[in-house]
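Hi R.,

Here's the chain you asked about this morning:
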Amino acid sequence: MASWSEFASDEPRLADAIRVLIQQYGPGLGYLATVRADGGPRVHPVSPVITDEGLFCFVVDSPKRRDLERDGRYALHSFPPEDSDDEAYVAGRARPVTDQARVDQLAGNLRAAPQVDWRLFEFTVDVAMVARHGSNGATPLAAGDRSERPAVQVWLDPAGAAPGTPVGATTGSRRRGRRRAVEEQPVPAP
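And the predicted structure, written out as tokens:
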């Protein structure tokens, strides 16, 4: 599992594109998917924090926090922009931050209310994706117009690629010991 800073160092353009989509309205905004105790998905809006050191989220006492404490798997998706259907997606594992100095620094920088029962999580990156849907948005695919397909860039951490990766998924490869982004061709229509 790569840290955000490792991912961003390896693929800065993709990391910047994700940061722009997550922070397009000022503070970070996204949908956080977690795994419920029964194995089902749970989705909540959150305010992720992207710094040079990592991808973080302050999570109040809630079902989503209990999900992350029990099973750290997560997926984070950007809010949709007003003028396009472009999207960013990051998935990996969340882990509680136990370094009190780091917690205090981020809480102070972000003015996190000390009286609120929140816990800071750091999100590792197993997969990162940006899809650019072009000037017509995602509607050409739904309407059957296949002239403009989305351009998708995907980065998979080769160290985190698990057995059972979906057929057709492209994993990154090592280059001089580094992880590498994989440029995808436009996604073929079904």
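The first strand starts at residue 30 and ends at 35.

Let me know if you need anything else.
M.
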